UniProtKB/TrEMBL annotation:
Keyword Transcription regulation found: yes
Record domain Cyclic nucleotide-binding: where: 12-131
Protein's UniProt name: Crp/Fnr family transcriptional regulator
CDD domains associated with the record: CAP_ED
Gene3D superfamilies recorded: Jelly Rolls, Winged helix-like DNA-binding domain superfamily/Winged helix DNA-binding domain
Domain HTH crp-type, first and last residues per copy: 144-218
Keyword Transmembrane: no
SUPFAM superfamilies named in the record: cAMP-binding domain-like, Winged helix' DNA-binding domain
Organism: Anabaena azotica FACHB-119
InterPro entries: cNMP-bd_dom, cNMP-bd_dom_sf, Env_Response_Regulators, HTH_CRP, RmlC-like_jellyroll, WH-like_DNA-bd_sf, WH_DNA-bd_sf
Alphabetical UniProt keywords: DNA-binding, Transcription, Transcription regulation
Highest taxon of the lineage: Bacteria
Length: 227
């Protein structure tokens, strides 16, 4: 992967200087995982930050035999930074939802890079603040109707990771159970709403290609209260 492509894929690296990108590219390690494989395990000590080159993962919290999806991440995002920065065991694990390609940078080298490149350091703080704002938005709509909350989840995924196509913004066909858990509504409600949105033509669920098309993004955004 050329450093220019590296920069274009990852918003975190958009302000990094060329020397930083070159160094990152040289020290990064490639990983590939099939769908369903654990990428990171809870309680493991943070030893690397991971960048999603392609595919989709879910961040989940486990309690005994039960697990709950907390977030869905796609191409261009990163994870593992919290355990690196506070030097503590991870409180969540990460599971591949689809075949996924990742790059990892060791804790020691990533911290060196942050100290060497103030712009990258600042950009990382900006993105972490954005994540906090997204959490606040989810808290603000916690009492909203299920359809509003689910539309908010779909729109957020489309804005962050959606690929433009002739049919609409294209995202991975995330299992309804994971969508329900991330949105904090029941699986029954999620299934009912997704089918209704599909019937209305606002979304198109393509099971053959494992894809959800956000066909009427404006209407979804209106429902989510984002416009």
């Amino acid at each position: 992967m050329q450093t220019e492509i590296f920069s274009n894929i990852f918003p975190l690296l958009s302000t990094a200087n060329p020397q930083t990108l070159e160094w990152l590219f040289n020290v990064a390690i490639d990983h590939e995982y099939p769908a369903g494989r654990a990428v990171l395990m809870e309680d493991a000590w943070g030893n690397a930050v991971y960048f999603v080159v392609s595919g989709w993962v879910k961040v989940r919290r486990t309690c005994g035999d039960d697990s709950v999806a907390l977030a869905i991440l796609g191409k261009g995002d990163f994870f593992g930074e919290m355990a690196i920065l506070d030097e503590s065991p991870r409180s969540t694990d990460v599971i591949a939802l689809s075949p996924v390609k990742l790059l990892s940078v060791s804790r020691e080298r990533f911290i060196q890079i942050l100290f060497k490149d103030p712009q990258l350091h600042h950009r990382m703080l900006q993105l972490m603040v954005r994540r906090l704002r997204q959490i606040n938005q989810r808290l603000q709509i916690r009492s909203s109707p299920p359809a509003v909350k689910l539309a908010h989840t779909l729109v957020s995924l489309g804005e962050s990771y959606g690929q433009e196509s002739n049919t609409g913004k294209e995202i991975f066909n995330i299992p309804f159970k994971d969508l329900a858990e991330v949105t904090e509504i029941s699986l029954e409600e999620t299934t009912k709403i997704m089918h209704k949105l599909h019937d209305k033509g606002w979304i198109k669920i393509d099971h053959d290609n494992n894809t959800i098309y956000l066909v009427n993004f404006k209407q979804l955004s209106n429902l989510a209260g984002k416009v």
